[in-house]
Amino acid sequence: MKTVLAAITFLFVILFSQDARAETLRIAFSSAPRSIDPHPFGGTPTASLKEHVFEALVASDDGPLLARSWRWISPVSLEVKLRGDVFFHNGAPFTSRDVIYSACRMMRHVDGRRNLLTNSMGPIDDIIAMDDLTVRFEFKAPYPLWIQKMKFLSILSSEQAKLQSETIAYDEHGDCGGLNYPSRQDFETGSAAIGTGPYKLDRFARTGEADLSKNDNYWGAKPVWDTVQIRTVTDAGDRLAGLIAGNFDVIENPKTEHLPLLSSSERLTYTSVPSWRSIFLVLDVSEDGAKGVRASGGNAPLADIRVRQAMSMAIDRKAITDNLFLGEATVANQFAPRYRADAPNMPELPYSREKAIALLSEAGYPGGFEIDFYVPADRYANWDRVAQAVAQYLSRIGIKIHIKSENWPDFSRKRRAGDLGFFLYGWGHPQGAAQMISFAFASPNKKLGLGSANYSNYRNDQFDAAIGAWAVETNALRARTFLGAAMGIAVNDLPGIPLYYQHTIWAHRADLLVNGRQDERTSATRVSPR
């Protein structure tokens, strides 16, 4: 580490033989976008890239984007008014027909697989063009979450449909009268990458490279940069070295230990924004027991709420955020950042080693127990140090932790198979403050789209009633009340243990202003000269 720091310090001395030209912005992503095709894939890197080219009806901050407004006509009918001053990169005007075409393509399997919203659009019964700038979504049952989901429906030009008529009839299979759809390859070669966004795609490579040029006819604020170069550099040290050498203007996710160097530089700095991502522990609370747990009384100590409370109480969250993150993380008190719009705000989670030991003894485990602790490697900032800190805190109350770090593909496979009894995880909240608990802690309910990621095997009738009421409530005030009730139950029962809310950090030239996003996405539209 000393050698690396010395090298970085030396590079600071010879920094910036020449500054980048103002008209070109060069960005280093920390992970590669999977595609420029906006429909098959989620993930922050892919979303960061595609949002330069494609736009949705609703913006990431829940405000209007290509939609001007929306209102519920009835509990099962949502009317959306569209902007009338928008044109695609090919010059075609944006209309309601493009919305229906995009929804049809989202329902159509691409390369034999579902798209990003294929399952989420299951409750939609029909999509109707009331006129060129009005779309009505009809649902099989109340589905207020669709407003949040609309921000992931990237809008494509219906000129690619090769229409035989002026109308498109939506259907749940995506056939929609035998429309033509571009393939993933069509997008990646550029022929189908036609959106309404502030930038046009010039080149894409699956290695994580993309070149963009500004859309001079963009309907919104005009792009600052003539061209944008995006490259992917997975190693944090290499990204920083590239910034220091002048190869990049902005880089994602510098390491915490790099921050003092950035702060002391006259030519570089960093921007930190509290993100919507909660970092937490997931526990298999099934009374049948959890895998990887070894206790004298069996393998189900996590089923006892006193054990879960003891584990939560044993962890000093503020020490983690202050010491491991240098203050660039926020202590968690619930399963969604309290600064997320419409989120409730629960009391702080207590820290007391003495009370934790007493609770563990009361539950029948005075000598503690052993447990395997699975952690995805290189997925979250300071993942290794956080894992060690959690292990040490729990060891102090008698719980022996065996850390099992896994690469992401193996970790994900074991998680989906239910093979992990105790693991570290992170969950963003782009779909609102209820996103995590509605997926992670609700009993599985396909009709309402709840509980599809309930790896804790948590069941609570009161929680299910509250989150089920939230899922069908179109009145925002009542929906917040149901969410608050559900969050309170989850925080009390602790099927997971909240740790902290991650901050997103960008290192960049000091003469640039970076307006960071809470959804962790990197956008050239949020970077400007000071």
Describe this structure in words.
The protein has helices at residues 2-13, 44-53, 96-107, 146-149, 184-188, 236-244, 259-264, 305-313, 317-324, 353-362, 383-395, 408-416, 435-440, 461-471, 476-493; strands at 24-29, 67-74, 77-82, 124-131, 134-139, 199-205, 209-214, 227-232, 250-252, 268-283, 293-294, 329-331, 370-376, 400-406, 422-427, 496-509, 512-514, 527-529. The longest helix is centred in the C-terminal third of the chain and has 18 residues, at 476-493. Strands 1, 6, 7, 8, 9, 10, 12, 15 and 16 form a nine-stranded mixed sheet that branches. A four-stranded antiparallel sheet has the order 2-3-5-4, with helices on one face. The chain is globular. With 530 residues, it is an alpha+beta fold. It has two domains: 37-184, Dipeptide-binding Protein, domain 1 (Alpha-Beta Complex); 275-503, Dipeptide-binding Protein, domain 3. A hairpin with a 2-residue loop joins strand 4 (124-131) and strand 5 (134-139). It is 27% helix and 22% strand.
CATH homologous superfamily name of the largest domain?
Answer: Dipeptide-binding Protein, Domain 3
Distance between the ends: 33 Å
Average pLDDT for all residues: 92
Q: Kindly name the structural category.
A: alpha+beta
The CATH architecture of the largest domain would be Roll
Shape: globular
CATH topology of the largest domain: Dipeptide-binding Protein, domain 3
Q: What is the multimeric organization of the chains shown?
A: single chain
* Radius of gyration over C-alpha positions, nearest whole angstrom: 24 Å
* Largest sheet: number of strands, sense, barrel closure: 9 strands, mixed
The CATH class of the largest domain: Alpha Beta
Q: Give start-end ranges of low-pLDDT stretches.
A: 1-21
User: What portion of residues belong to β-strands?
Assistant: 15-25%
Structural domains: how many = 2
Let me know the number of strands: 18
Percent of residues in helices: 25-40%
Number of helices: 15
